[in-house]
């Protein structure tokens, strides 16, 4: 009986050693694969990226690390920056949610932090089909990009793409807010019409205390999607001054594509990208940081009613 127990105990020990060895082997194998994936990602040639999409009126989207990796010495420093953005988002959301009473702030609003976004989209702009990278922002409704000629020293130097110049695009048109008053929402804290200059000026603030600010005026321009036959004339913010706030915009992108929508109908939702192309919903999957591959941002029109009225009023008494 004792021999049997000794043999059984020995078999258990051997089995545990075997399982432990297999686990260590798999951990080693996975770690090696991760290191190789990181190495491949850091050596990715961004000049050979694909901007094709199989869907009409769609756009490819990439993780910002694809275009920003050349600013870092290695993958670990790139990862540190990504984790810092995640941490900052968590801290901001935690602070914001802990300091408000949901029963008193309906409709719910949130603060937008453009510096922490993870996904960028290439847009082809104007008659020259100039490519500009815009940050995809699901929390705002404003579409803007830097627009030369800028005010002296008020546009930041973009890391990769050339600065868009409205004077070089034959499809650009400044909005005359006196003749087209409906395009410049009256009473908005973001846009206002100057009757003297006939310009619809805008100023968008991001973050607490408006630490990051873009300002300029509203205009028309043509944007082209992945398929050159798919294009749309939209109203955008022609950004003339991006240095008014305390915090600077990242050099990675040229502006922000606000795709936030339409639970609240105060008129400003008409400026969002989905609204301007007649879409009521949009969909995308966030690409993994190390894949170097794109995902797709698609716009759709729903057959059902959308808007705030279809949602139950949980906080109304």
From TrEMBL:
Pfam families: TAXi_N. Residues 1-20 form the signal peptide. Keywords: Signal. SUPFAM superfamilies: Acid proteases. Residues 119-317 form the Peptidase A1 domain. Belongs to the peptidase A1 family. This is Protein ASPARTIC PROTEASE IN GUARD CELL 1-like. The gene is LOC107026490.
């Amino acid at each position: 009986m004792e021999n049997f127990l000794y043999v059984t105990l020995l078999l258990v020990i051997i089995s545990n050693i075997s399982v432990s060895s297999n686990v260590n082997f798999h951990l080693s194998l996975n770690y090696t694969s991760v290191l190789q994936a990181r190495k491949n990602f850091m050596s990715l040639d961004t000049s050979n990226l694909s901007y094709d999409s199989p869907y009409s009126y769609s756009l490819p989207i990439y993780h910002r690390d694809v275009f920003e990796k050349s600013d870092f010495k290695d993958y670990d420093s790139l990862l540190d920056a990504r984790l810092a953005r995640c941490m900052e988002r968590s801290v901001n959301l935690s602070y914001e949610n802990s300091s408000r009473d949901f029963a008193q702030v309906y409709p719910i609003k949130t603060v937008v932090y453009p510096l922490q976004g993870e996904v960028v989209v290439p847009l082809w702009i104007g008659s020259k089909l100039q490519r500009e990278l815009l940050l995809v922002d699901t929390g705002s409704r404003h579409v803007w990009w830097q627009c030369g000629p800028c005010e002296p020293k008020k546009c930041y130097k973009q890391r990769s793409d050339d600065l868009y110049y409205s004077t070089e695009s034959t499809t650009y048109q400044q909005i005359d807010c006196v003749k087209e008053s409906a395009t410049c929402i009256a009473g908005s804290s973001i846009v206002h019409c100057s009757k003297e200059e006939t310009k619809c000026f805008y100023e968008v603030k991001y973050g607490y205390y408006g630490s990051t600010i873009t300002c300029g005026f509203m205009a028309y321009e043509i944007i082209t999607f992945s398929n050159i036959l798919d294009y749309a004339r939209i109203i955008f913010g022609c950004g003339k001054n991006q240095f008014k706030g305390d915090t600077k915009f990242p050099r990675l992108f040229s502006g922000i594509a606000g795709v936030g929508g339409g639970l609240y109908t105060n008129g400003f939702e008409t400026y969002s990208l989905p609204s301007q192309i007649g879409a009521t919903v949009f969909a995308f999957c966030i690409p993994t940081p190390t894949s170097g591959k794109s995902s797709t941002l698609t716009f759709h029109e729903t057959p059902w009613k959308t808007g705030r009225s279809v949602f139950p009023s949980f906080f109304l008494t």
